[in-house]
Amino acid sequence: MLIHIGLILIENEMKRILIILMAVIQLLCPAGCCRWDEAAVRSDESPVIFPDYKDVTVPYNIAPLNFMIEGADRLQARFILDGKSSLDVIGKDGIVDIPEKEWTGLLEQAKGAKLTVEVSMWNDEHPDGVAFKPFEVNVSGNKIDAWVAYRLIEPGYEGWRQLGLYQRNLESFEETAIVTNKDATTTCLNCHHFPAYSSESMMFHARGANGGTILYHNGELSKIDFKSIGPKKNTTYPAWHPEGRFIAFSANTTHQVFYGEGRQPVEVFDTASDLLLYDIGTGEVLTDPRFLTEQALETFPAWSPDGRYLYFSSYQAPQLPVYFSDSMNYDLLRVSFDSSSRTFGEKIDTLYNAEVQGGSASHPRVSADGRYLLYTWSQYGTFPVWHREADLQMIDLETMAPVDVSVWNDAEEADSYHSWSSDGRWVVYGSRRLDGRFTRLFIAHLDGSGVPCKPFLLPQKDPRHNAWRFKSFNVPEFIDGKVELPKEAGNLFYSEE
To answer: Are 432 and 449 in contact (CB under 8 A)?
Structure first.
C-alpha cells in the first residue's frame, strides 16, 4: 500500500515538472518558433538579406554573420558543411541571430572550406513558407586581427557634441570606449594611431582649449604641444614607425568650402602641409627642408612594414598662395629612411603620377608583407570621404603594376580610409555605400595569389544596428588586443572653458 502511494506521488511530481518544462518552452519559443518546418514553395532566387553575406570570404574567427530579411515574420537558416547540416538557426521578426558558441565551433571546422546556407521565410505573402536558392560563405584559413579601433562621430562640418575613440572585438560583438569627449564636449578627438598593431601604445590628437597630442607609450602617458617645439607646427595625420621610436606627421592647414548645388555638400582642402618627424626618445621634431616648402603640399605619411621607406601624398602648387581648385591632384611618393641617422634618402620615387594617370591619390598604406600599396583614388583633392567617386586602388610593389580591386568598391558612393591586417590578408575600410551619408566598416580578403574577394559589412548582433546608429566609423585601424588607456588620459585635455 505504501509503495503504491509512493509511486502515485512520484508520478504526480513528474507530471508537475513536465508541465513546468512545457511552460518554459512556450515562453522561450512562442508561436512555434523553435519548430523546424519545411517550406511549401522552392524559389530559384537567392534571398535578399541584409547585410549581404552571399558569396563573401570571411576569417574563421569572425563574429556571427547575423542577418535579416525585410518583411519576414519567421526565418530558418541552415548552415551546411561538407554536405551535412552543421547548424540550424530559427529566427523571428525577420532576424537570424546565430548562437556565438555554435558559430565559433562551426567556423573552426570550416577553415579553408565553404558553408552552404539554406534560408526559408514565412510571412503574409508566403504563409506556408518559401525556400530560397542556397548561397555560399567562404571561410578563409587566414585569421583576422581580433580588434579594430575607430572613431565614432556624427557626420557634420563644424560642430560636435559626442564623439570618441572606440574598439571592437571582431570575434564577438563587444565594443568599448577607449576615450571620449563626454567630459569636454568642445574637444575633438582624432587621428589615432598605433605602432605595428600594438595595443600597448597609442597616440591621438585632442583639439580644443586644453588640447594637444596625447601619447601613451611604454606605460607612460603624456601630452605634447607641437606648436611650441621644433618648427612650431600643429601636427595632423600620423604614421608611427614600426620600431616605435619615431612618428611621422603631416602638418596641415585645412579649410573647407561648400557647394551651392549638387550632391557633394563640402570640399575639404589644404593650403599648406609639410612633413615632420618626431623622435619620442629625445623629444625632438626633425625636419627635411625638401618637405617644408610652400610650393609642395605633403600629407598622409605611411611607413613600409620594415620602416625603411616613408610613403606620402604630394601636390605641387602652381602658384602661391594656394587656393582650392579641382586641379589639385596628388601624387604618391616614396623616400627611404635611415633610422640610425634619422635622415631621409636623396632619391624620391614617384609611384603614382597624377598628371599622367589622372585623378588624385590619398591614404597610401602598405600591406604587412610589403607587397602591395593600397590607396584611395578620387578625381581631385585630398579628402576623398566626401567624394562619391572615391575608390580603393592598389599597386603591386614587386612589379609596379596596378591590381584590380574593383570588387571592393561601390559604383555610387565613397570608399575611402583603409588599413591592412597584420598578416596582409585582410583590409578594413570605410564606405558610404549603404546610404551615402554615414561611413560604415567593410572587411575584405586578399588571397595568397593576390586576388581580392567580395567584402562584407562589419557584423552586428542586431543587423538593424547598421541603419539605426546615426554615427560614422572613421579611421579603422587593426590592433592586436584591447587597449587599456589609463583613466587619467581624459584629464590631459579636459577644460572647463
So the answer is: no
Quick: pLDDT tens for 304-338.
Answer: 999 999 999 999 998 888 888 888 999 999 999 99
Positive/negative CA dihedral, 360, 437, 252, 149? negative
Provide the β-strand partners of residue 392.
Answer: 376
CA distance 34 to 229: 66
What three-state secondary structure class fits 312? strand
CATH code of 428's domain: 2.120.10.30
- CA 409 vs. chain centroid, Å, equals 14
Q: Which residues contact 272 (CB under 8 A, 6 or more apart)?
A: 251, 252, 253, 294, 297, 322
User: Tens of pLDDT along 52-65?
Assistant: 999 999 999 999 99
Question: How many separate domains does the chain show?
Answer: 2
Percent of the chain with pLDDT over 70: 90
Q: Which of 119, 139, 159 is the last residue of a domain?
A: 139
- Is the model's pLDDT at 20 over the cut of 60? no
CA-based Rg of the chain, rounded to a whole angstrom?
A: 27
The length of the chain in residues reads 497
Q: What is the CATH number of the domain that holds 98?
A: 2.60.40.1220
433-441 long-range Cβ contacts below 8 angstroms, 24+ apart: 434/466, 434/467, 435/467, 436/263, 436/388, 436/412, 437/155, 438/155, 438/470, 438/471, 438/472, 439/155, 439/385, 439/414, 439/472, 439/473, 439/474, 440/466, 440/472, 440/473, 441/148, 441/150, 441/473, 441/476
Domain residues for 486?
A: 147-492
Q: Lowest-pLDDT range, 119-128, 187-196, 363-372, 403-412?
A: 187-196
Q: pTM score, two decimals?
A: 0.91
The average pLDDT across 277-300 equals: 97
Spell out the alpha helix ranges (H) of 54-177.
100-109
